[in-house]
Design goal:
The complex is a heterodimer of chains A (288) and B (340). Chain A is of the alpha/beta class and 288 residues long. Chain A is built from ten helices and seven strands. Chain A has a five-stranded parallel beta sheet, sandwiched between helices. Chain A has a two-stranded antiparallel ribbon with strand order 4-5. Chain B is α/β, with parallel strands linked by helices. Chain B folds into two domains: 190 residues, Rossmann fold (3-Layer(aba) Sandwich); 126 residues, Rossmann fold, CATH 3.40.50.920. Chain B is 37% helix and 18% strand. Chain B contains 13 helices and twelve strands. The chains are: A alpha/beta (288), B alpha/beta (340). Chains A and B meet through helix 5 and helix 6 of A and helix 4 and helix 6 of B.
Chain lengths: 288, 340
């Protein structure tokens, strides 16, 4: 069922960089943006859209396409540029980002943006949407996969676990949950606010096959996607991606200050230069 | 077990016949007790699905209570019981709709519309997905199960959501008509049903169009605008009042959103007064919807009747209807007092 394009690691690295720089550029238009939540899932998004998903930008409603749901909808700012880059719409459309009447708001609207498979914004819904789409494939005898990007803070929502239990019960193997495990929610570390570990064991207990990888490691992401089994029926698939919130910009990495922020002036130029130079090894701040 | 308890137990057996108490839980198709047409929900959907492969049905552990088991038996591959997880059910239905299916999801109204309100708003109405949320056992029809199981607020809550069609089924024949025109209607829809015992109003399956009320009786002194379970009682009250020399028009305002403004305007200009009747909280419901139309028209005597913005007592439904004067004798008295 797969139609993976032969995309090099260098291309994926470059597209992840593109997702980050576009996020910084668009945030300046809006005067605020979800930088750090988008930076944490840049490699996941790049691998998914440029290598993994079976899509045809010329046919956004193609019935047999793979679906993607950005359940952590506040990272839409990283998804819009990808859709534009792939040809779903004109990249210059993004210059209206968040302006009055724009098709592009902080959270994605499927009615307004070509290439979006569903809207989101209210956390906790996306896995249910994906489950419904995975079950629809069964009814319609289609072979597509449904990928759902979940935030780790979002896992506190009860509906996620309703969907996880239901997917385990229905055996929707074509449903793939991608957890962006970046460690932070708005008020602090997830484990301090409402602990969600061990995430992999929790999904496994609900009947899912689970992989846990470094979500910034493109080789690991590629391997995890390649390991997904074909076919609709079996165990639903979860890939827990351990990531760093704000990854790629030193001042934002694991910082609580950049869930929403605005870079202007010299700060903007510095961050753009930092991103253009490419990812440096992540070195956690020493514990106080 | 008392007779009343037996009747209450029937809610979960999905049948109105005490004789089937220890038999198969599935419905007794086409054999409702006289005057109490049981749900035809699953049966009608199963028939529609014979020729329409898009139709799928889901419930949340209430397949026998809401008769979606009739659909399950006919089309098991297109039936999904999501268990007691209503939010997941409603949102999953939105996902299915986004792939071209037309899902009907049914559970008690209190859990469909009130527990699931945000899922209906965010996942169904806003992205204009063709999900049909069917809330059964609405109003106070669950009697002594109490306020958690009563849905007095669902009309008001659902009509406050943009891009959501909201309608109430009047009886079995009306529900059949409603389901038939619902399949191809654009966008999301909330369909409010009674408990399945709603007495007959329509002798045959009526012709319906969304936004078009049904005028069931002509009159000049008063128009009763009713919906759902209160339509039969309104007709019976009108009959009693006619014998007393009062000429009462009765309108079945089954389509709450879109609302038939012309029918309301006609009532305001052609009859002497307007009385709205609903099995629910008058705050935000049908009465409020009608008031929103009347406020733009020349003044006409107007009364909203229903539950006066409070939670109701527990008790057998018939006792509750009597207490809130939503049965025929009660409505007759309300109308008499109103007309003076």
């Amino acid at each position: 069922m797969t139609d993976r394009r032969n995309v090099s690691r260098a291309v994926l690295e470059d597209r992840a960089k593109f997702i980050r720089t576009e996020t910084v550029r668009l945030s300046r238009i809006a005067g605020a943006g979800h930088y750090s939540s988008t930076f944490s899932c840049a490699e996941i998004l790049a691998t998914l859209y440029y290598r993994q998903m079976k899509i045809e930008p010329g046919r956004p409603n193609w019935e047999a396409r793979d679906r993607f749901i950005m359940s952590k909808g506040h990272a839409a700012i990283g998804l819009y540029p990808v859709l534009a880059d792939l040809g779903f719409f004109d990249p210059s459309d993004l210059d209206t980002y968040t302006r009055f009447g724009s098709n592009f708001g902080d959270h994605p609207d499927m009615k307004k943006v070509r290439g979006l498979d569903f809207s989101s914004g209210s956390l906790g819904h996306g896995l249910s949407v994906g489950l419904g789409m995975a079950l629809a494939a069964r009814v319609q005898k289609q072979e597509y996969r449904v990928y759902v990007m979940l935030g780790d803070g979002e896992l506190s929502e009860g509906q996620i676990w309703e969907a996880a239990m239901s997917a385990g019960h229905h055996g929707t193997q074509n449903l793939v949950a991608l957890v962006d495990r970046n460690g932070l929610c708005i008020d602090g570390h997830t484990e301090d606010i409402n602990s969600i570990e061990p995430i992999h064991k929790r999904f496994a207990a609900f009947g899912w096959d689970v992989q846990r990888i470094d979500g910034h490691d493109l080789d690991a992401l590629t391997a995890a996607f390649d390991a997904l089994p074909d076919g609709r029926n079996g165990r639903p698939q979860a890939i827990i991606c351990d990531t760093v919130k704000g990854r790629g910009v030193k001042r934002m990495e694991m910082s609580l200050d950049w869930h929403v922020g605005n870079l202007v002036g010299e700060d903007y130029d510095e961050v753009m230069a930092e991103l253009e130079a490419g990812l440096k090894p992540y070195v956690p701040e020493p514990a106080e | 077990m008392s007779t009343e308890m037996q009747n209450e137990a029937e809610i979960f057996r999905g049948t109105t016949s005490g004789e089937t108490r220890f038999k198969d839980h599935r419905s007794v198709r086409g054999t409702p007790r006289a005057g109490m047409p049981a749900f035809v929900l699953g049966e009608e959907l199963a028939e529609l699905a014979q020729t329409d492969p898009r139709i799928v049905v889901a419930t949340a552990d209430l397949a026998s209570a809401n008769r979606t088991n009739d659909f399950r038996d006919a089309h098991p591959e297109r039936f999904f019981d999501f268990g007691i997880a209503e939010k997941n059910m409603i949102t999953a239905a939105a996902g299915m709709a986004a792939c071209g299916l037309v899902p009907y999801v049914a559970t008690f109204a209190s859990f469909a519309a009130i527990l699931g309100a945000e899922q209906i708003k965010t996942d169904c109405a806003y992205p204009r997905q063709k999900v049909r949320i069917v809330g059964t056992h609405s109003g106070m029809s669950m009697g002594f199960y109490g306020s958690s199981h009563h849905s007095l607020e669902d009309i008001g809550m659902m009509r406050a959501i943009a891009d959501l069609t909201v309608c109430c089924a009047t009886d079995a024949n009306h529900l059949r008509a409603l389901l038939r025109i619902s399949v191809d209607h654009p966008g999301a829809m909330y369909i409010r049903l009674g408990r399945g015992r709603d007495p007959q109003v329509y002798d045959a399956v009526p012709e319906l169009a969304f936004g078009k009320a049904r005028r069931l009786r002509e009159g000049a002194d008063l128009t009763i605008i009713a919906t759902g379970s209160t339509v039969r009682a309104s007709l019976d009250a009108a009959e009693t009042l006619a014998a007393e020399g009062r000429s009462v028009r009765v309108v079945d305002m089954w389509s709450i959103a879109p609302l038939d403004r012309d029918e309301i305007a006609a009532a305001a200009s052609e009859t002497g007064a307007i009385l709205t009747v609903e099995e629910g909280n008058i705050t935000g419901g049908l009465g409020t919807a009608v008031a929103e139309v009347l406020v733009d028209l020349p003044r006409v005597p107007f009364l909203r009747h229903g539950v006066p913005d409070r939670f109701v007592e527990v008790g057998p439904p018939a006792a509750l209807y009597a207490n809130y004067r939503l049965d025929a004798p009660g409505l007759t008295a309300v109308a008499r007092e109103f007309l003076g």
